[in-house]
Every structure is written in C-alpha cells, then in structure tokens.
Amino acid sequence: MSKPEASTPRERYRAQVREEIKKHAWEQIASAGASALSLNAIAKRMGMSGPALYRYFAGRDELITELIRDAYRSLADTFRARAEAGPDLRDLAHALREWALADPQRYFLVYGTPVPGYQAPDDTTRIASEIMAVILDACTAGQVPDEPASPLEEHLHAHRDWAGRHPAPPSALRRALTFWTRLHGVLSLELAGQFTGMRFDPAHLYTAEAESVARD
Amino acid sequence: MSKPEASTPRERYRAQVREEIKKHAWEQIASAGASALSLNAIAKRMGMSGPALYRYFAGRDELITELIRDAYRSLADTFRARAEAGPDLRDLAHALREWALADPQRYFLVYGTPVPGYQAPDDTTRIASEIMAVILDACTAGQVPDEPASPLEEHLHAHRDWAGRHPAPPSALRRALTFWTRLHGVLSLELAGQFTGMRFDPAHLYTAEAESVARD
DNA sequence: TAGCGTTGGTGATACCTTCTAACCATCGGT
DNA sequence: ACCGATGGTTAGAAGGTATCACCAACGCTA
C-alpha cells in the first residue's frame, strides 16, 4: 500500500506487520467509525497482546495519521488514474463518488469532522494540492481563455498561491473550487445519511451538480 | 434552553442541573470536539463526583443526543426568526453561516461525520423538516409558477414525500436541495479548516454560492 | 561457530474512561 | 413525625491508552 520494497528481511517483516495492523484498523473504522478504533482490539485480533503494537506505531494518533495519509494517497491515485483517460470534470466527479461510496468512513477521515487540536501532517497538503492540480487541469481544459472576471474570480486570482504554478485562468480557479465544494456538499450529506427518509436518489442530484460545474 | 417551566421546586432544580451539565458539555465540545466529551470531567468541574451525573442522563449517548436535539432546535429557531423578516434565500444563507461560525463543533454535531451505529432520535427529523419548510418557502416565493421541469426536477417531484404537504413546485424542490448542499459544501470545508493555507476568503465563495441558488 | 546488540513480544502497572451496585442523606408530602 | 422519592457518595467491574522492565529470538560480526 505504501512501501512495497524493503531491503532486509527484518524490515520486510516489519512492513508486513504494519500493513496487517492497518488492515485491521480499516475494518474496525469501516464498521464503527474512527472514534471507536482500539489498539487493544486490533492486537487481540492479531493474536498478540496489547503493547506489542507500540513497537510499530507510537500510539493511536500516529496510526490514525498514517491511515489519513493512505486515504489521501488513495484518493489522489484514483484521481490521477482517471485524469489520464482525459481531463473531464464529469469523469472526475464520478470517480470521486465511487471512491467515497466504496468506504464512507475513509472519506470522512479525509473530509469529515476535524478534532479541534489535531494538525494534519504537512505532506497531506502536498497530496491535496496534487489533487487540486488534477481538478485545475480539467477546469482549464474545456474553457475559452478569458471572459470578463467576476468579483469572486478577481479575489481568487489575487490570492492564487494555493494553485501553485498552475497556469489556470481566474475562471478555472473559481470552477475548481465550486467543483470541490458542490460535490462535497452532496456527497458528505449523502454519506452522513441526511437523505435517508427522503426517497429521492442522491446520484441524480450529484450528477446534476457535477453538470452545473462542467457547463458554465 | 428547552423546558423553562417546571411545577415543583424539585423539578426546577433538576432542570437547572441538567442545563448546567449541558453548558459544561458544550464548552468541552467546543474546545476538544464531541469525541472528547467526558462525563467524569464535567462532574469534576461541577464539584460533584462521577456517577452523580447518571441521575440526570442515562449515559454519554443520551447526553450527546440531547445536545444534538438542542443544536437542531437552535438552528431551526434562527432560521424561523430570520424567515419572519421575509423569505429571502440570501438572508437564510447568511443566518446559517453566522450560526455555524458561532460554534463550529455544534454545526458538526448536526451535519458532521456520523457514528455508523448511531441513530438520530426521531424528533430531529421533525425539526429537520421544519427547517426544510422554511427553505422551501423562500424557494417558492420569488419564483414564477412553472417552467418546464428538468429530469432531476421530475425525479424529485415523483419522490416529494420529504417536502410534506408543502405546495412547492418541482423547481423549488430542486432549489431547496441545492441551497442546502451547496452551502453545506462550502461551510463544512471551511469549518473543517480545509481552506487554511489557501489565502482566499471563504465568505466570498459562500455568498457566491448563495447567489447561484438565489438567481436561477 | 560463538558471541552479542538490536529488535519483537510479554506481563505488570498507572491512569484514564463509562457505567453499575450498594449505601446514605436529605427533601417534601401525608 | 414518618417515609418514600430523589440526589449524592464510595467501591468496583470492564475496557481503553501508554510506559516500564524483562525476556527471547533474530542476524551480523569476530
């Protein structure tokens, strides 16, 4: 999942055990949420007792941090993979939804409720901007160079540090952000179960929102 | 906050202690998130020891459920209060953002990451539909009776149980949902700190999204 | 091949949490 | 003045994180 190559057999064993720990952690998170993750329970399921896990992770926080990192990487990978088939916003939107529905708690680990004190590791921001670059590509692609910029677009263009060195016009900056926020809006509410009870199909709403960004 | 009137002095005292417990709970949630809520810590801060709180709440879950209920009621109240000044979507959007920024963790308690097993109490769905009714009012107000309905609007109209007996045309159903999802998309990402690092002002993006629903 | 440092695993322990059980005090109505 | 309902206490079970001291086993090196 992360580092397939290891030189010595010791390191290979270590990496393998770490992966097994993470595997059990994901199962536990998927079934009861991240807040219910228990190192003790993982250890028991792996046949070893309690404190052994501390040889592989400094503590619960470091394990969760590692899972967040993996989730980020996984999302970035699926985005990049999809983008290689052509920079289409609808495709990206569909890939995002597939990825989220495959494991809702994994989505929430990345985009869900944050713990007030917690600081995401700095390399996740690098992955986040990698994701944003793919979106910016797709937003820049099908667009005519420049129409007159709206006030919002002026503002975003004035603070475009987050776009890095990407040559996206102001309108693409705005479209990339609304792509992100609109899809997250529908998706997170759907995954949170806020639509259950209402009988409509969230997929239709989702594709309509994706369309609203693609055509404008 | 919830039941100001009580007959006997005993019940009055009980209600008062319950409110104080909730007050401390909110402080704790605001500073460390809902997952870090500790009944023991609350009891200590109130000068009484441990299990006394179980005379007032059956357990941690019931306390959190009560907080969620209060949060829902608070949001519905601010919505209704704002709606009495006239059914304007921009005003509602502004009221929502104010309410969310006042206490981000309270927002996440309502719309944030759900615990897989947990079931929201059924009376929250009643409050949720009350909120939705206000939005539907505002969406129906400034609208011409009927343009040709889009496929999404047809679908929503075919499954309009969630709108109750509200006389909203198909276009209003769609606008109400996108109002909800688009604003939640910007707001939740902002509150989660996903925009920190990017230097732009989320307020501009938020008002632009509110505008996008108001004008269409 | 013998030695030995590094590494992985163990049980004991401290300290936290939720929550139950048993006991006691106090309030308020009859 | 009595007595049940109510509120509060301590003790304790069960389970969590995390540290410590100890032990075994692996693998490199002399």
Descriptors for this entry?
globular, mainly alpha, homodimer, Tetracycline Repressor, domain 2, 0% strand, 2 domains, 216 residues, DNA-binding, 9 helices
The ordered H/E elements of chain A are HHHHHHHHH
Q: Assembly type of the shown chains?
A: homodimer
Greatest interface and its participating residue counts: A-B, 49 and 49 residues
Main CATH class of the largest domain in chain A? Mainly Alpha
Rg for CA atoms of chain A: 20 Å
Structure explained in plain terms:
The structure is a homodimer of 216-residue chains. Chain A has 216 residues and is mainly α. Chain A has 2 domains: 1-57, no CATH class; 66-214, Orthogonal Bundle (Tetracycline Repressor, domain 2), CATH 1.10.357.10. Helix content of chain A is 65%, strand content 0%. Chain A is built from 9 helices and no strands. The first copy, chain A, has helices spanning 9-32, 39-45, 60-83, 89-102, 104-111, 122-141, 151-158, 170-191, 202-214. In chain A, α1 crosses α2 (39-45), α3 (60-83) packs across α5 and α3 (60-83) runs parallel beside α6 (122-141). Chain A is globular and about 65 Å long. The mean pLDDT of chain A is 94. Chains A and B meet through α1, α5, α7, α8 and α9 of A and α1, α5, α7, α8 and α9 of B. Chain A binds a DNA duplex (30 and 30 nucleotides) through residues 8-10, 13-14, 17, 38-41, 48-52, 54-56, 59-60.
